[in-house]
Amino acid sequence: MNYVLDKILIKEADIRRRVDELGAQVSADYCGKQPVAVCILRGAIPFYADLIRRISLPVTVDTITVSSYGSGTTSGALKVITDMRTDVKGKDVLVVDDIIDSGRTSVALINMLKERGAASVKTCALLDKPSRRVVEIKGDYVGFSIPDEFVVGYGLDWDEKFRNLPHIYTLKEDK
Ligand code: PRP
Q1: CATH at 39
Q2: pLDDT one-digit tens code per residue, 49-64
Q3: Would you call 101 a catalytic residue per the annotation?
Q4: Of the four listed, 26, 62, 102, 163, which is most buried by Cβ atoms within 10 Å?
């Protein structure tokens, strides 16, 4: 099956406005602290790059590539493909992801960072699909709550395509 772009779901300008708001909210909540912002590669790249420039704190940056194990597990298992470099012990960590879907990635990553001794772990996701949740998690900072539609652009892919698009689009079958 091949898919092509259907409609714009969230325009670049609306993403920018919301990222400004999230950055302001994070800056206020972490006032006086030096959080570690962790980018979950690869989907979060554009969101992360925009968000950290809207955080008016001495935030430090890092990245991690993970993959949560499939449908058989509910939370625990997380495969770390490329680990972060920061020792998070005693640090306030903000996990930045493009989307919370089943919730497995976020929950497993939060558990792992807590086990490593992080003082606090919060999540910031641009998109949230609450109807797809398998494990219980509520993002601390969420850009947009969306219906269960396949979306691409602004970091999100289908078959590794469309990550570079500035807007977020829905897809349709190419008939
Ligand atoms: C996607 C997305 C989240 C995760 C969300 O990553 O970027 O990290 O899945 O899904 P979940 O809530 O069901 O765990 P993916 O593994 O597709 O990698 P990518 O970021 O490289 O696209």
Answers
A1: 3.40.50.2020
A2: 999 999 999 999 999 9
A3: yes
A4: 26
